[in-house]
Amino acid sequence: MSISKIKKAVALVALAVLASCGGGGGGGGTTEARVTGVADAQVLEGDTGTSTLRFVVSLDKAVGSGVHLTWSTVTTYKGGTGAATGGATCGAGVDYISVSNRDLLIAAGNTSAEIQVTVCGDTTFEPNETLAVKWSTVDNSGTALGTIVNDDAGGLNGTGVAGSYGRDSNPLTNDGTDGRLGFSFAQVASGACTRDKVTGLLWENKAGTGTHSPSGTYTYANLAAFVAAVNAENLCGFNDWRLPTPEELASLVDNGSGGVPAIDSTFFPNSQPSPYWTSTTTQDGLGTNAWFVDFLTGAVSWDNKTNAKAARLVSNGGSTAPAPLPTSCTDSTRFTNNGDGTISDKRTGLMWKQCAEGLSGTSCTTGAGGSFDWNAALARPAATNADANGSGLGYADWRLPTRAELSSITEREQCFNPAANQATFANAEPLGFWTSTPYAYNTSLAWAVDFMEGEVGPALKTGSGSSSKRVRLVRAGQ
Fold it and tell me: Where does the Lcl C-terminal domain lie (predicted)?
């Protein structure tokens, strides 16, 4: 036999072998279906029992005789979220049931399938958390991301200024009828009160000419009688009404609307564009001043207690206990030092860089520090994220905090000069720090937080000495 005939015979045999294999068991020369991908998934966590993350498996055609896919769950991080914790069974601290090297058989005739991960419900506020599903077949592999969306009261209002973070950036928690971007309200008792579904707090509304008159004002000495009258009334079925803390009251400020007053007037009718008292006396040692929130613009400041201002009371409303106030400037119950240059906030789910930008080291004393105008502050996270294993401290999703986020770490109740937890945030500076929130009433301004006492107000973005401020970066959250 000639060499050319031998080559032709070998080729024919090879073709016959390939035809008999069928590309995965289909037989008859038909290749088996191929998994082309697994889609990301998300689910609301739920308060009790379990829910299911459903990852849709796509194939290029109907399965002939059967396709095997092997998959495992892996804890991971994604920008803007935390890491979900897996376990063998649901219980304290477990977010989902872990799976390792499980076989999924996709039966004949199917054009798609599902990978299902069991999610454990609870009533504890957490940021949205993620896990990964790693999968493989004989000829393909990949990773899909699962997000467990928090649905428990807690966290911060109004964090979704840019639409990238916060409740309204996610379709599972976005409701166009419950308030503007980042808020979620519901009227109670025919509008006598409003429930904040993010924080869980219940708020007094203003109407009429009596106890709840919109025009009522009080010196600080008169506030106790007002609180007693509302509790005696058992407003909306509760008798635990009190003055809110600065952070609680500031949680109602709508920074994005540019409206006057700076609050959702649909859910808080008859609100006045004026200052409202809070429960907190300033820590300057005088004892004569107290904090207020000005609903003309949303600024947080202080004034002498003898001056009359409006007041809006808050109730626990039978939902969650109020966040415990710090007992000292070195209180250790709220924050966790992760030992890697980051600080985790158990109250909000946020992770902070321990040091302001330009400083480093365990005591944040290495470096000269850095001051930025607003545009430079907005650009700073990109440089940090590009150096994830260096200045990024192992993360690549740092961002400039919103007004609500940065204000949340002030400690006005116990601290002064600086108004910050001095054990948690080493070398905390009593200086102004930028937020990412623009000032809706003047495009030349943006919100800043002054850590001398804890004031929150607008500042020029650029072009003057007042535009030079510090930066502290944040990640994770709702």
Answer: 193-314, 341-475
Q: Top-level CATH class of 335-476?
A: alpha beta
* Inter-residue contact 132 to 76 (CB < 8 Å): yes
pLDDT in tens, 187-231: 999 999 999 988 889 999 999 889 999 999 999 999 999 999 999
DSSP 14: H
Contacts of 124 (CB under 8 A, 6+ apart): 152, 154
pTM: 0.78
Give residue for tokens 């600086």.
418
The residue type at 474: V
Burial of 358 (0-12, 13-18, 19+ CB in 10 A): middle
Backbone angles phi, psi at 362, to 5 degrees: -65, -25
Q: What fold is seen in the domain 35-149?
A: Immunoglobulin-like (2.60.40)
* Nearest-angstrom CA–CA distance, 205 and 53: 39
pLDDT tens digits, one per residue of 168-185:
445 545 554 444 556 789
Q: What share of the chain is helix, strand, coil (3-state, %, to 5)?
A: 15, 30, 55
Handedness of CA 415, 417, 419, 420 (dihedral sign): negative
Please give the DSSP secondary-structure letter assigned to residue 421: -
**Distance (Å, rounded) from C-alpha 85 to C-alpha 131?**
8
